[in-house]
Amino acid sequence: MNTNSLTDILKEVVGEILLDRSLEKGVSDAMEILTRALEAEVGIIWLLDKNKERLVPVFSISPVDLSNFSVEVGGNAESYVAKTSQSLLKAEMTEDERYNGTILDDVGLKVRNMICVPLGNRQGSIGCIEFANRKNNTPFSEDELQLCEHMAAVAAFTIYDQGITVEAAEKKEVLISMRGIIKEYPNGDSITRVLKGIDLDIYKGEFLVILGESGCGKSTLVNIVGGMDNLTEGSISVEGKDYSHPTDDELTMFRREYVGFVFQSYNLMPNLTAQENVRFIADLVEEPMKPADAIAKVGLSERAGHFPSALSGGQQQRVSIARAIVKRPKIIFADEPTAALDYETSIEVLTVFEEIVQEEGSTVVMITHNPEIAKMADRVVKLRNGLVSSVKTNLHPAKAKELVW
To answer: 174-402 maps to which CATH number?
Structure first.
């Protein structure tokens, strides 16, 4: 990479950080740009929980999902950089007296070469930024190391300016675990592979947003996890039980007892009132929520007796949410639930989802093309070409009413 290219990249990544006052978006966008420019397989921001002496990943571009992972500061490359505030450039990860391997060794990701630079401010070290495994396997250069150091300095200033701190949370309880998920479809004489090896965990009580361009596999993934489609290869477990190849009875039980769906199209039965639409679903399960209570939770008690044709689009979508929650599902999948709605109505619907997570303890997995909505998620997963391209933890999720687009 020549000097002019490095200068242009630095301007771009610094611009992303300084122009967007949202730390999560500005720094993570800069990391995506730099990881792509360095042709690295891995890019991670580690922040230091000083109380517990642990490093916590808050943003990762990696084939391994690190969001339920933190590590005690000890004898590894990342700890060395975070503790000493000295950068590390390694062409080959061989024995070195300063450290013993990397954190990524613990999750089975073999690091071949790396850049690791400190994140520091006037209070001292707050973590480090790591790039590893250049895709063509050539070593990173000293000039690229300096580029990363400049980016880290601006990121650290922004983190300090916003008063961001991190605490290593207790290990989250996994609701659904996916490993090596591949999905193929026949396409004439050939096979189209839509999902190419997804590794991802979904945790109890989280709001997870899945982003990605059209055709990247978002809906396919949700349909497989929700029991509406079958995987080609890989494994899925639900609360530790294997659901990779369920029987018809197991699939029926799973969809009925575990899962609620909300789609872009409301799919309400036109000859039933709002409350009757909800009651129809409630009658399918044991110990449901009272239909009137579900309607009340989405703020439609006064419209409960109206047919869908007499309801606005936002009201119909809220009925579909009530229909999803009346079963008391453990997880709700929402596929572009605001795509057909205007801004104000979208905020109303998103507020309902926000309350469901907070008050009911349900897990919500939402597909959206709108990156602004991702700001209210606990985690944001980006898919690209059938693979997880990045996972970001929002340190301070926004409220639905704070979103603007």
So the answer is: 3.40.50.300
